[in-house]
Amino acid sequence: MAIEIRPASVFEDVRALLGPKSPEANVCWCLSYRIPSKLNNELRGPARGAYVAELCRAGTPLGVLAYDGDEPVGWAAVAPRSDTSFARSRTIPYVDDLPVWSLWCVRVRPGHRKRGVSHALIAGAVEFARSHGAPAIEAYPLDSGGARVDLTMAYAGIRKNFERAGFTHAADTTSVLAGHPRVLMRLDLR
What we know:
It contains 5 helices and 7 strands, in the order βαααβββαβαββ. With about 190 residues, the protein is of the alpha+beta class. The chain starts with a strand and ends with a strand.
């Protein structure tokens, strides 16, 4: 399987990875960290997808998608930290004053897992951030110590996958997800 990483700018492909089976469902659409909490809580059902469609039309990719041929099989959310709720986080610390980018969600479609897609997504997100001038990129994965992680909560990624991609532990956090601590991992892009 040859995986190609592209900017996530085609709404139909983003919907294939993030959209619900039922249009009325209140799924994340990877907006929880991207938009202010008040707006995130106000957007319900179809309004969430419509908001993502508008972001796609605005021309700024929301992250990157992994493709197997023409089929979108994976997603990674990446953006400047200053444009996310991580900019105001009380649980994810700042390491320094660099205008870093955040990589906060990695998702692979069922049927395509265990094939290296998440590794390709991390590498693609790094290249996307680098091509947009990011001096460094951060991720906030789970430090599960090798324990299994519930797939619904594994979106933050696993520490070892980021270590394989060259990220290093930059700080501990007080954030916990699915019973596992999250750590701040960083990759310098300068």
